[in-house]
Amino acid sequence: MFSKNIKVEGFDDELFNAMEGERRRQEEHIELIASENMASPRVLECQGSVLTNKYAEGYPAKRYYGGCEFVDVAEQLAIDRTIELFGADWANVQSHSGSQANGAVYHALLEPGDTIMGMSLAHGGHLTHGASVNVSGRIYNAVQYGLNADTGEIDYDEAEKLALETKPKLIIT
């Protein structure tokens, strides 16, 4: 684990000076661009917390990966507080992700019904790589490769055989 006392200052002074310069610029100028809002110190603290180290795909208590119990607490707090603040019945507080980037690539390169090949979700693949629970698995003819049960590594022979048999227009690795 890393020491809690290590800082950018003194380690990479060029980067630290750029960060400090931007901090001063933001404090000393009024920016009228809506997307350049100033985050409070509390927001910056949250964004720089250990929660950012955790990949937590899915929703609280319904994740695709283990070890999400504390991320679930934080996300559920955000959901509950958003519902209360806006008097809503439901809220999704998750930001957009690489899923949209994958969708853009698919849309640019593929037609509905084209075959795509990606790693099985059960073997560590991503939802957007053709899983049946994702739109990519419904719009496209998705075939999945997996891991060798004995080695835990990608079974390249099986993946090659599957690719030759199904002739996918796109292979996602």
From TrEMBL:
Domain Serine hydroxymethyltransferase-like as annotated: residue spans: 10-172
Keyword Ubl conjugation: no
GO molecular function per UniProt: glycine hydroxymethyltransferase activity; pyridoxal phosphate binding
Cofactor annotation: pyridoxal 5'-phosphate
GO CC annotations on file: cytosol
Biological-process GO terms, alphabetical: glycine biosynthetic process from serine; tetrahydrofolate metabolic process
Pfam family of the protein (one): SHMT
Keyword terms: Pyridoxal phosphate
Signal peptide as annotated in the record: none
Name under which the protein is recorded: Serine hydroxymethyltransferase-like domain-containing protein
Species per Swiss-Prot/TrEMBL record: marine metagenome
